[in-house]
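Expect sequence, tokenised fold; for instance:
***
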Amino acid sequence: MRSRADSGAGRANPPRDAHGVTRKTSVEPRGPLYLRIARALKEEIVSGAYMVGSLLPTEEALCERFSVSRYTVREALRLLRDEGLVSSRKGAGTVVIPPRSSGSDIHHVMSINDLLAFGADTRFAIESIRTVTIDAKLASRSGLPVGEEWLEVCGYRYSEGIDAPVCRAQYYINRAYAAVGRLLQRHSGPIFPLIEDMFGQSIVEVQQQISATLVSPALAAALRVKDGSAALEVRRSYKTADGMIAQVTINTHPASRFQHAMTMRRRSHR
């Protein structure tokens, strides 16, 4: 008797063309091949092309689809396993697994597109939208120039099924793109894609800084942690192709509910 894994039952179908022929996939031309393949598969998992419990195509099928070696495919699958998106067992294939439910906010970012995936998994509850003038204190936190006016959007991000907020979220949007503010009450995902869509800009660089801080009494109550407990402040600056800062985000995460993972590879010397 053939097993489910052997027969291919439950295995999600790879992309096909109009004639039902498996379509070869080209990946974005930046970074090592295994990393680009991991990004492509992750985007498909996040979008629902591969549902939880379904099997990814076999290594052989992925080699054919991406026109790469088996070693490259295995490295890509290893990255997906490290991120907790899939599980592999010899003879059973690679299966998409449910997101970790530990209550921790886990960031494993391989590209700017991964920030979209994070936003898609959370809901942004807005408390206030207003124009602010950057003072010395805010300049120190945000890296923005003193005296400039920016659109400030404040609120909390929530994960599905978890009552306590994931983080306190503060967005500072360049006044040149402040028109996105009128769309935000109907929008719960990341804001920078709205800027790209409305103004035809492309975010090409994100600079990230993580700092340790202590939770204030008011913030402690909202985040449901003790006053003075440890937190991590994650600041990201989003730059357009012409070097303009379009947006700065400051997310304050309780340290007990935040994990940051980063994959580094040594570049091969030719």
Residues 33-47 form the longest helix (15 residues). Residues 126 and 204 are 26 Å apart (CA to CA). The chain has a mean pLDDT of 82. DSSP finds eight helices and ten strands in the chain.
